[in-house]
């Protein structure tokens, strides 16, 4: 196996100890099913993507990295038709997914008379939604014999130097980050992975996730696309407006793809190449006007590198072990002076 530069988990540390950090993508393949061929393609994907041969390992108290081996760490299984899709998803992505012992991708194959379906369940440490969607497309193309997976270097965001110009924190935010780091070091606090696992099991049991499945036929999709084009909005703007109406939420955090800004990113590489921005609920108006207001709000955020890269800049400035406690602290499973200050900064308290 050729030398692979060690990739450290830095901006992704917030995903490390957070419940429900997995998601799924279901793909239908309209080709005759062969278990041998499907597993052979998964093996090809693993050889092309080092992260599919990885588990998480600890170098020291502050450094986690992707420990890449020679063999695939994809866990694949075959099941009957997916009438039990959500129960399969819940079972396979259960909260005791130990990333130190298990690989970061689990695959379920559902053969049927017209071909088969593939459920990709990924831990967020493997990649963001766009990365896993790209991986699903790679599988489909390779299975159909159209294009074999190509080896790609997976190089993550490692420092502020990887972010575009204008991403630096304001003087006040830098002060708050360094003050939080100082409090963290002085308090000598920590959360072990075992403590997190206990918390995650309790949290997921007390806060069950509800899944709803819906599908749109091509005519419905075309109608929505036409409506969006006519009003200068995207499908995401429309769905976001519907979400605000249905949930009554005042603010929603959404992901924003930043691949175009990153020199380190290689096409189809796995990993997280996204930031996050907060979007406030629009006031009054009908659904389309709400979507248009959200479109303008998102456009302003992604047009300002300081706003767009804020969360990544914070993660890259904080002590890694402090970053990884962000989720458990916000959800009430851990308390510290440093975390309280961070919560105040981002408006959580």
Structure report:
- Helix content is 42%, strand content 15%.
- By secondary structure, it is α+β, with helices and mostly antiparallel strands.
- The protein folds into 2 domains: 13-143, Chloramphenicol acetyltransferase-like domain (Chloramphenicol Acetyltransferase); 171-345, Chloramphenicol Acetyltransferase (2-Layer Sandwich).
- Helix 2 (35-48) crosses helix 4, helix 5 (171-187) runs antiparallel to helix 14 (337-345) and helix 8 (235-247) crosses helix 9.
- The longest helix is centred in the middle third of the chain and has 17 residues, at 171-187.
- It is globular and about 60 Å long.
- The chain starts with 12 loop residues before the first helix and ends with a helix.
- The mean pLDDT is 89.
Q: Can you give me a brief rundown of this structure?
A:
This protein is of the alpha+beta class and 349 residues long.
List unreliable stretches of 5+ residues.
none
CA-CA gap between termini = 49 Å
CATH fold-level assignment of the largest domain: Chloramphenicol Acetyltransferase
Biggest sheet layout: 4 strands, mixed
Using only CA atoms, what is the Rg? 21 Å
Order of strands in the sheet with most strands: 1-6-5-4
Order of helices and strands: HEHEEEHEEHHHHHEEHHHHHH
Percent strand equals 15-25%
Beta strands, count: 8
Structural class: alpha+beta
Write the CATH architecture name of the largest domain: 2-Layer Sandwich
Q: How many domains, as an integer?
A: 2
Q: Quickly name the level 1 CATH class of the largest domain.
A: Alpha Beta
What is the percent of helical residues?
Answer: 40-55%
Mean pLDDT, all residues: 89
Give the overall shape, derived from the CA principal axes.
globular
Structure annotation, total helices: 14
């Amino acid at each position: 196996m050729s030398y692979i530069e060690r990739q450290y988990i830095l901006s992704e540390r917030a995903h490390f100890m957070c419940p429900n950090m997995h998601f799924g993508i279901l793909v239908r393949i309209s080709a005759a099913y062969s278990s041998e061929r499907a597993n052979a393609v998964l093996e090809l994907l693993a050889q092309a993507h080092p992260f599919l041969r990885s588990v998480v390992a600890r170098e020291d108290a502050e450094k986690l990295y992707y420990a890449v081996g020679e063999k695939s760490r994809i866990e694949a299984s075959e099941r009957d038709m997916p009438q039990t899709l959500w129960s399969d998803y819940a079972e396979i992505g259960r909260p005791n997914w130990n990333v130190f012992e298990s690989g970061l991708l689990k695959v379920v194959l559902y053969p049927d008379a017209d071909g088969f379906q593939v459920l990709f369940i990924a831990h967020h440490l493997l990649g963001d939604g766009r990365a896993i969607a790209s991986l699903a497309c790679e599988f489909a193309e390779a299975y159909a014999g159209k294009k074999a997976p190509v080896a790609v270097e997976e190089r993550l965001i490692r420092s502020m130097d990887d972010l575009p110009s204008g991403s630096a924190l304001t003087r006040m935010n830098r002060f708050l980050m360094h003050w939080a780091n100082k409090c963290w070091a002085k308090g000598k606090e920590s959360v072990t992975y075992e403590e997190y696992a206990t918390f995650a099991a309790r949290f997921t049991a007390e806060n069950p996730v509800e899944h709803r499945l819906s599908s749109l036929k091509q005519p419905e999709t075309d109608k929505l696309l036409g409506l969006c084009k006519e009003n200068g909005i995207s499908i995401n703007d429309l769905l976001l407006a519907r979400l605000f109406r249905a949930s009554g939420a005042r603010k929603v955090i959404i992901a924003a793809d930043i691949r175009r800004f990153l020199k380190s990113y290689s096409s189809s590489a796995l990993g997280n190449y996204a930031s996050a921005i907060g979007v406030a609920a629009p006031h009054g108006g009908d659904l389309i006007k709400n979507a248009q207001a959200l479109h303008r709000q998102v456009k302003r955020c992604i047009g300002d590198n300081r706003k767009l890269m804020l969360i990544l800049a914070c993660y890259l400035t904080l002590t890694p072990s402090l970053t990884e406690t962000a989720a458990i602290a916000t959800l009430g499973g851990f308390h510290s002076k440093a975390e309280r200050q961070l919560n105040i900064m981002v408006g959580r308290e």
